[in-house]
Amino acid sequence: MSTANYKPIDNPAELKRIYREISRTKPSAHFQFTKIPDFHPCRVTYWSEEEGFFLVQYVGKEASEKISAMSSLAQFKGDQAFFNSFLLTSQILFKAQFVETDLKQGMKFSFPEKFYKIQRRKHTRVPLTEFVPAQAVLTLINPTDMQSLKITRRVIDLSMGGCAVRLEKDDAALVKKYNKLQMVNIQLGGLSLTNPGVIRNVTGTKIGIEMDLKNQIQQKKFAAFLLQQLRTILDDPTITDI
């Protein structure tokens, strides 16, 4: 693996924080055996530096087929696999040796010796559970006749640069028609933020919105909320950046 575009992670404190984040959040990843070109989507389900190994499970549309065929992976025992894992705060790359498979636990790999980091986004994206009162009122515009429509939906993740909003069953067709975003109002308990926004992506289940917070007072309140959420998720009160 060429490290020209990657930053090696050598700071013990940063490594400890990353291990803690992986253990608590069970992040998604892709892995690829060095001998074959296919990338496999997975999720890290167990992570232990002390025990010297971690476990992953297949995810995605073909997960059930791949799980049933895991016994065929025995041929790769001892081989290296390249991992690309997506954390809340960064994207990390590492290699690990394949140990064995278990139909219940998944695939077992030896603990990586070296980690590299890519900063995925300008802002850390913080997921919100159903226990966090967060909703967005979206003012959408139909560019054909300039008619507007307001919908209120649950916010599922937030950053200083935008948010992702959960769509309901028939929303995809609605957003296809009203495909311009005039304004977004995010309500977080007692905190309310209103800002222009841009639709960046739409899937069957969510809409990604980019925002540019201009008001400095709102920025500080928003940052404080996100920082507290991230500290809670990672159980780490020492985090200072969002």
| Main CATH class of the largest domain | Mainly Beta
Name the helicity range: 10-25%
Q: What name does the CATH topology of the largest domain carry?
A: Pnp Oxidase, Chain A
Radius of gyration: 21 Å
Number of strands: 16
Q: Strand percentage, roughly?
A: 35-45%
Number of domains: 2
Mean pLDDT: 85
SSE order = EHEEEHEEEEEEEEHEEEEH
Question: How would a crystallographer describe the biggest sheet?
Answer: 8 strands, antiparallel
What would you give as the CATH superfamily of the largest domain?
Electron Transport, Fmn-binding Protein, Chain A
Coarse structural class: alpha+beta
Figure out the total of helices.
4
Question: Secondary-structure blueprint of this entry?
Answer:
Layout: E1 7-8, H1 12-25, E2 28-33, E3 40-48, E4 53-58, H2 63-68, E5 80-86, E6 91-102, E7 106-110, E8 115-118, E9 126-127, E10 134-142, E11 147-159, E12 162-166, H3 171-177, E13 180-188, E14 191-195, E15 197-202, E16 206-211, H4 216-234
Antiparallel strand pairs: 1-8, 2-3, 2-5, 3-4, 4-7, 5-6, 6-7, 6-8, 9-11, 10-11, 10-13, 11-12, 12-16, 13-14, 15-16
Keywords:
Pnp Oxidase, Chain A, Thrombin, subunit H, about 240 residues, six-stranded antiparallel barrel, alpha+beta, eight-stranded antiparallel beta sheet, single chain
Task: Give a written overview of the molecule.
Helices cover 19% and strands 44% of the residues. It has 4 helices and 16 strands. It has helices at residues 12-25, 63-68, 171-177, 216-234, and strands at 7-8, 28-33, 40-48, 53-58, 80-86, 91-102, 106-110, 115-118, 126-127, 134-142, 147-159, 162-166, 180-188, 191-195, 197-202, 206-211. The strands form 2 sheets. Strands 9, 10, 11, 12, 13, 14, 15 and 16 form an 8-stranded antiparallel β-sheet that branches. Strands 2-3-4-7-6-5 form a 6-stranded antiparallel β-barrel. Strand 10 and strand 11 (147-159) form a beta hairpin. The chain starts with 6 loop residues before the first strand and ends in an 8-residue tail after the last helix.
